[in-house]
Amino acid sequence: MELREELKRKAGEKAVEYIKDGMVVGLGTGSTVKYTILKLGELVKDGLNIIGIPTSIATEKLAKERGIKLGSIDDYQVIDLTIDGADEVDKNLNLIKGGGGALLREKIIAHASKYEIIVVDESKVKDILGDFPLPIEIVKFGYKRTMNVLSTLGCKPQLRVRNGKAYITDNGNYIVDCKFDKIENPAELERKIDEIPGVVEIGLFINMAKEVIIGKKEGIEIMKIP
Ligand code: 5RP
Predict the structure, then answer these.
(1) Cα of 109 from ligand 1 centre, angstroms
(2) Ligand 1 within 6 A of 85 CB?
(3) Could you report the per-residue pLDDT of 9-62, keeping only the tens digit for each?
(4) How many angstroms does the Cα of residue 78 sit away from the middle of ligand 1?
(5) Test site for ligand 1: of 97, 129, 131, 160, most ligand atoms within 8 A of the Cβ
């Protein structure tokens, strides 16, 4: 296994130690949390009883394949613990998410969660957010105008394209990836973007993560809100 993949695996698998019998568990999306879900599937096979709440159609499919019992956010409006990935993490545990396109469902589930744990490899930890273009989910109607308004905030918005076509989220919307120089004040930026009509959700997750599990060459580091 390539080193980065190995670090993702370490972080992803470590997170299952937080899952206890009887919990309602939010299941994030992406190539790091995939390792959490695979490990969780093994524990479920050995008798662990939990309900998983998936953050995307892809995660729902993977969890089902692994025999994990699933529920919906409408049936379980309070989630004990969510484990998810991120594209960037800063020292205050603020995040950029949405590289995998699941930011809207991920944010709804994070908001419903008593405890949110993020799993990343060490390359995702930054002093200041913003190397990774910020994913923003927008409605299709008027998307060119919405992108133009976004550019007035100082970013270069790119409509996300996959296989030659505009990428469509699980919720039927577009994603715009916005490259900012540096995001010095994520809370202020989130507020400004949120005011733009057509914006559905923003990939900034502020004050949502309680713990970040980092897979490093030397082992595992845990960053935690005191
Ligand atoms: C999906 C996400 C993912 O958690 C994020 O993109 C990290 O994914 P990966 O672990 O594959 O790097 O926010 O919307």
Answers:
(1) 15
(2) yes
(3) 999 999 999 999 999 999 999 999 999 999 999 999 999 999 999 999 999 999
(4) 23
(5) 97
State whether residue 81 is helix, strand or coil: strand
Q: Is 190 a known active-site residue?
A: no
> Are the CB atoms for 116 and 97 separated by under 8 Å?
no
Name the CATH topology of 3-125+206-217: Rossmann fold (3.40.50)
Q: Which residue has the tokens 């949110």?
A: 116
Please answer whether residues 223 and 214 qualify as being in contact, where contact means their C-beta atoms are separated by less than 8 angstroms. yes
Quick check: pTM over 0.70?
Answer: yes
Is 31's C-beta closer than 6 angstroms to any atom of ligand 1?
yes
Give 134-201's CATH code, choosing from 3.40.190.10, 3.30.70.260, 3.20.20.80, 2.60.40.1260: 3.30.70.260
Q: Which residues are CB-neighbours of 140 under 8 A, at least 6 positions away?
A: 172, 173, 174
